[in-house]
Amino acid sequence: FSSATDTIRATLFPGDGIGPEIAESVKQVFRTAEVPIEWEEHYVGDQVDPRTQSFLTWESLESVRKNQVGLKGPMATPIGKGHRSLNLTLRKELNLYANVRPCYSLPGYKTRYDDVNLITIRENTEGEYSGLEHQVVRGVVESLKIITRQASLRVAEYAFHYAKTHGRERVSAIHKANIMQKTDGLFLKCCREVAEKYPEITYEEVVIDNCCMMLVKNPALFDVLVMPNLYGDIISDLCAGLIGGLGLTPSCNIGEGGIALAEAVHGSAPDIAGKNMANPTALLLSSVSMLRHLNLHDKADRIQEAILSTIAEGKYRTADLGGTSTTTDFTKAICDHL
Ligand code: ATP
Ligand code: MG
């Protein structure tokens, strides 16, 4: 990249616990690969910002809104009253309506399956997560599951558009409409409407219990999966487990107006924080998702390739993958591959 006008500004939240260590790894890999990105770093504050009612400042949110793209390390929400969880604040304020998790088998890292290659797309704003719970009378409580046409169409549209632009062939809507006739029924109706606009993509509907059974029997049966919030929470973790777990799985949150905030699936791992032991792969692969969102596919391919060959080679692996390498050694090995 030759001139300053070619550089893209992106927000980076290193986050808590192992966050700063794995964020450093991403920065180093990006420097080595000469990715034309300039990071705007933001940290979680130590007091509540009244404008966001959270430890995230208004300026941090503005940074993502302005840059439209960012990478987020794990954030541990401080315990106490009078503030919102950090993840909820981000999700609500930036309207991050879809959580996208690519799940593919990593060559050379053996799990029960060798041929996983699927994408889960989770509706991220409503469903069972609307936070509407109350006691009706003593001994009886009620929780409202909200499904709207607007949010369902939006996530379905994202899923089909994703399938089309990423060379995918099939979208499966995951549901329990036989029991949740109104809510999941509406979700499916919206998926069907969108499916009609994409005749080149095969559309199917799979009941969630059957989906779980099929996923553990033969995950290669699936391509792109789209589903309401709670099912997405469960199924996306199930899929992460198919390919090797927390240290490896990336995700990306998509917001209104094209915002993309990529993040690792795992938490702040306080047990290994500051010990140079964390596996940066999940955050690195999340940063690869971010590059793909920016259409920087050649950089994304190169970095992904370097990560995968380093893992496949097996010489440098972090402790969670059975190796003895530090975060910095593993990162250096990736940079050498670049
Ligand atoms: P949080 O409350 O922030 O979610 P946690 O205690 O639940 O923190 P997680 O981050 O969810 O911890 O991790 C669960 C386990 O997986 C821990 O033992 C942690 O060390 C391990 N782990 C998570 N992420 C990684 C990683 N990137 N590399 C290595 N080990 C990890
Ligand atoms: Mg956790």
From TrEMBL:
SUPFAM superfamilies xref list: Isocitrate/Isopropylmalate dehydrogenase-like
Any one GO MF annotation of this record: NAD binding
Cofactor(s) in the UniProt record: Mn(2+); Mg(2+)
GO cellular component term, pick one: mitochondrion
Keyword vocabulary terms for this entry: Magnesium, Metal-binding, NAD, Oxidoreductase, Transit peptide
InterPro entries: IsoCit/isopropylmalate_DH_CS, Isocitrate_DH_NAD, IsoPropMal-DH-like_dom
Domain Isopropylmalate dehydrogenase-like per the UniProt entry, residue ranges: 7-334
GO biological process, one term: tricarboxylic acid cycle
SMART domains: Iso_dh
Pfam families: Iso_dh (PF00180)
Superkingdom of the source species: Eukaryota
Keyword NAD: yes
Oligomeric form and interacting partners: Heterooligomer of catalytic and regulatory subunits.
UniProt record similarity statement: Belongs to the isocitrate and isopropylmalate dehydrogenases family.
Stored NCBIfam families: mito_nad_idh
Name of protein: Isopropylmalate dehydrogenase-like domain-containing protein
Organism: Gossypium barbadense
Native organism taxonomy: Eukaryota, Viridiplantae, Streptophyta, Embryophyta, Tracheophyta
